[in-house]
Amino acid sequence: MDSSTLKIFLAMAGYMLIVIGIGLFYAKRSNKSSEDYFIGGRTLGPWVAAMSAEASDMSGWLLMGLPGVAYWCGIADAAWTAIGLAIGTYVNWLVVAKRLRKYSSVAGNAITIPEFFSNRYHEKKNIIMTLSAVFILIFFTVYASSCFVTCGKLFSTLFGYSYHSMLIVGAVFVVFYTFLGGFLAESVSDFMQAIVMVVALVTVLVTGTINAGGIDAVIANAQAIPGYLSLTSMATPQTIDGVQTVINGVPQFGEASEYGLLTILSTASWGLGYFGIPQVLLRFMAIRKTSELKKSRRIATVWVFISLFAAVCIGVIGRAIFPAEASLLSSAGAENIFINLSQALLPALLAGVVMAGILAATISSSDSYLLIASSAFAKNIYEKSPKATSLFKKLTKKDADDKSVMWVSRIALLIISIIGIAIAWDEESVIFDIVSFAWSGFGATFGPIMLFSLFWKRTTYPGAIAGMVSGAAMVFIWKLALKPAFGGIFSIYELMPAFLVSCAFIVVVSLLTKKPSKEIEDEFEMAKTGTIEE
After folding, report:
1. Of 132, 150, 301, 308, whose CB count within 10 A is highest?
2. What is the DSSP string of 327-385?
3. What is the pLDDT of residue 186?
């Protein structure tokens, strides 16, 4: 390890020690009860709620996946995704946050998303709770694997070790940290990590622009590539076996491909995903006062706008500085552009701090994914299963109480992590693709039912189940069957059609079934008009 790499390592190690210190500081408080461990006792302030929600949402995808897409095929895909996410962030905080904070308290003081849905419809057989927990386990395991891919790519690129060994090292650290501190430690560290992420992005953006010869030089380079700088067409790298062709040091592109209105709408529909993303919705449930949500909304929106804008621009700048770098000449390799720019343009110690931004993004997301997925199993499957709690009592000679739920959650966390590592084992995994699938899964499964549960009193229990199952099913059908078989119109992002299908099922089934009981309707009105602590 040379001196430059050593400095990068020391900077990142120092950052990791700070993160561990936060976990240790909050460990005692987090372990008081499952409510403290899973939702921080509903004590988040506006800054922590906003910044932790966005940091846990964006993940390493923001610093690697999004710049990689912009570097590889131009700004259309990346920019419309970013625009959709920015709008979705604002609308989610504006429309959903306050009502969910109130309703989750009214509905039996729910502390997980599955528990909220179950309490909202007063179910007796825990069908919604179990289905919600199962879908959370599926999609968050996929999501966690994207974070492990980020760790593997980051550490192997920086330190020269194999992707697989670095993948395991990164996963072990994340699991240890999540196991230790719970939701409150995760949220406080995510606040710090959100700051590190935005500083890293702005630093590379400014430094890269200067080294590329200024804004005019970056734009001129992008304009020379057909469709690269357009919002209605997309650049098409010429490839052989997935690797872009380079002739005399010049990367080769074909004619620009059309990026039509339907594709734009489907890409911008990334914003719909926010209504169903558990790690963001949990921050709404955990904030201490509804009166602080307005401030949180402003903080979150500004952070998201700056971060997404910088990430897209970094990909474009990277094309100007590294037009034919061998390690970047595939869609998977292009996701290393942020790392390459940081190493090449910044002093080693500062580069290490910037690299910590990627690590920050990865940790802030993966600990959320693992905590929510494991809590879904422990709180919403294990705790509600008499057979499981009876088995625990026989094996441990203890009651299956609140503490046992937390321990089962940690065991589930380990199992989920192992499965996530297995999914991430392919070194050619593309972070953007993994995240887009998991995002569509959450958006279509939970987004429509969350909106209807909060804002349409006529939504029925069968309607909720139908909407959830149809949304999840359509994500798989569209992605794995319709898109590869037919192409064309079926090539659009699966979130939009799956979201619309879920909405249709909720409305139709709700209207065809018996209206909710007076008790459920009264509870709805209480959440609509009542106050928590203003």
Report:
1. 150
2. GGSSTTGGGGHHHHHHHHHS-HHHHHHHHHHHHHHHHHHHHHHHHHHHHHHIIIIITT-
3. 64
